[in-house]
Input
Amino acid sequence: MGIGEIAGDLWRNVEEVGETLTAPFSDPVIRLGVTGLSRAGKTVFITSLVANLLDRGRMPALQSGSAITTAYLQPQPDDTVPRFDYETHRAALTAPEPFWPESTRAVSQLRLSLRVQRQGMLGAMSGPRTVHLDIVDYPGEWLLDLGLLDQSFAEWSEETLARIENRTEAAEFLKQLDGAEPAANFEESLAKVLASSFTGYLHAAREAGFYDCTPGRFLLPGEMEGSPVLTFAPLRMTGKAAKGSLQAEMERRFEAYKSRVVKPFFRDHFARIDRQVVLVDALGAIHSGPAALEDLRGAMARILSAFRPGRNAWLTTLLRGKRVEKILFAASKADHLHHLQHPQLTAVLEALLREAKDRADFSGAATKAMSIAALRATVEETISHKGEDVNCVSGILLDSGKRAAMYPGTLPEDPNQLLSAARSGADAWLEADYNLMRFAPAPLHLKRGDGLPHIRLDKAVQFLIGDRLS
Output
């Protein structure tokens, strides 16, 4: 361990002691992490969450034993973290012609302060108090990077190339790789070509419905775009790297990515979270087919590894016994299904997570799976088709702006029918096709005191923070 790392650890220890000493004399703070893989709906979830805590007319399930008398936004406490742009995102969803806001690109934060009055005689004696909810938004792809910490460059290269060898999305990168000799002298121009081609593959794979798209910062580089720490790619290894070779420099940059990108994220953001939401676009994976669903299952297992730090010595040292207290796994976009199928969607999510959860040591952390829609974009309809009533949803199509009804297919009562096909490598679903349409947000006509329309967001909030409001 270098002097810089030792000094950093000492300074963090001083900060932690200071927080411990001042905590009894300050307002309680709940740090809520919100993550999920691409297109899971993180931005919409946070926007609707805040809107519905500011105006609680649609939150009947939020019953904590205390009444939230008022809620208001405040500057976030971390001056170096960008603010989640709630006002702009809400304006997009409530415009006369609403549209989906831009998705998560980096870590952002928002502080919502809740003025809480405990009910009953004790409440009258104690008076109101303030609870701060610090919402931390970060891309789920960054959690997948945790697995890199346990791998060498050679191990990562071998695993990655084996996984993508037969994917059409990787054809161009693999062609470029065939012309690269790991033992040759390092040339920056070749490194840029390989890194660019590999990044192109990652974007194409994500669009095709794959979820094993690491390193995560290649997809969301931010201010690091073009830096050496993001200019590497897997290689076909030929043995020990010679000094000054392409392989040696790629190995060096891979290790720099772990130490300067992955570790700081877990140290500065993840290690401070109390409660966590993991959003999962399970419907999107089912629509994409068995391979995508199996890939999602693997990705969720890797994400869950971040919540069982005993399996990673570095993360265990960092957290020093601190664990996330509650984790909600939420299948998003439940409004794309008729409510009669919501239990099946929840069952699919539970089955996706079961293997990983059974292996996980959450040390008392409460977990729950739920189907939600942070913003309801559809209405339910029953349509007669060939003499039978079919339960559908209808909404405004994102691409054409026309209203259409959708019957996505019937999810099986036993989710293992889907998972078994996914595990066996089936090319398509045998029993049924699962179709999805992309809906735009519906124009809203909100009443005074109502937040944005949703499905079970109030139950999600009750599970996550209800106990801390009583």
About this structure: The chain has two domains: 25-138+270-375+444-469, 151-265. The chain is about 40% helix and 15% strand. Residues 1-8, 10-25 have pLDDT under 50 and may be disordered.
